[in-house]
Design goal:
The chain is of the alpha/beta class. It has a domain at 4-99 and 162-226: Rossmann fold (3-Layer(aba) Sandwich). Helix content is 34%, strand content 28%. The chain has helices at 48-55, 78-88, 104-114, 121-131, 147-159, 177-194, 205-210; strands at 4-16, 21-33, 37-41, 63-68, 71-72, 89-92, 165-169, 197-201, 213-218, 221-227. The protein has a six-stranded mixed beta sheet. A four-stranded antiparallel beta sheet has the order 2-1-4-5, with helices on one face. A hairpin with a 2-residue loop joins strand 9 and strand 10. Helix 3 (104-114) crosses helix 4 and helix 3 (104-114) runs parallel beside helix 5 (147-159). The two termini are 23 Å apart.
Length: 232
């Protein structure tokens, strides 16, 4: 039986701007199963990024519960949440969040080192960068790379340790169609070979076409949840 990795139950999320309260999520419920290759879609303001941040222990729900790997996030200390993010989750942010003084390889290695990887971390970093077409850019710093190249470094950093769950916010936003295809094929390969689970927030029809499950949000709730048949 497939394990449930994430359970979001009747979650609301309000943001107080000082003048008005913005209701980003309005009683949303959603489970993520082990091995899911899921695209979360919807118009801007539908709650996609908010949901991703809650699952990733980057934010907290106003009401409702979020369980990840069987652990209720609201019961964790700040340190425990940080440990969960470091050791079990991979993140791809729209803003890349690369360390500007480190090379592409060093950015990937840095996370592996924090996770306790030994001398093999250099080889692992170079391997995943090469898989993403960045072998010749491993020694370049972020300001020496294009936005699309930086995006791929961010993906390499997220998947290098093969975390159980990867959360990606618009992972193909700065990529051309060829690099987007290569990126998605690599991620799907990691899912098939190592059982990694991927959840994407996206507006990209290509990501949706690769996804095995498509969840549509509207006004902070799940509007539809579609699983594709094998081969679609």
């Amino acid at each position: 039986m497939t394990e449930t990795l994430v359970s979001v139950a009747d979650v609301t999320k309000d943001y107080d701007t000082g003048k008005v309260t913005v209701k980003a999520l309005r009683g949303l419920s959603l489970d993520v199963a082990e091995g899911d290759f899921m695209a979360i879609v919807g118009p801007s303001g539908s709650g996609k990024t908010t949901l991703l941040n809650l699952i990733g222990a980057l934010d907290t729900a106003t009401t409702g519960t979020v369980d990840v790997f069987g652990t209720r996030l609201s019961g964790l200390s700040r340190r425990e949440r940080a440990d969960l993010r470091l050791h079990s989750l991979g993140f791809v942010f729209q803003a890349y969040n690369l360390i500007p003084v480190l090379t592409a390889r060093e950015n990937v290695e840095f996370v592996l080192e924090l996770q306790g990887a030994g001398e093999e971390r250099r080889e692992r970093a170079l391997s995943v960068l090469t898989d993403l077409g960045l072998g010749d850019f491993a020694d370049r710093r972020p300001n020496e790379m294009s936005g699309g190249q930086q995006q791929r470094v961010a993906v390499a950093r997220a998947v290098a340790s093969r975390p159980r769950l990867v959360l990606a916010d618009e992972p193909t936003a700065n990529l051309d169609s060829e690099n987007s295809e290569a990126l998605l094929a690599m991620m799907r390969g990691l899912r098939d070979l190592h059982g990694m689970t991927f959840v994407f927030c996206t507006h990209d029809p290509l990501v949706v076409s690769y996804a095995r499950r498509v969840v549509r949000l509207h006004d902070g709730v799940v509007q539809s949840d579609e699983r594709k048949e094998a081969g679609q």
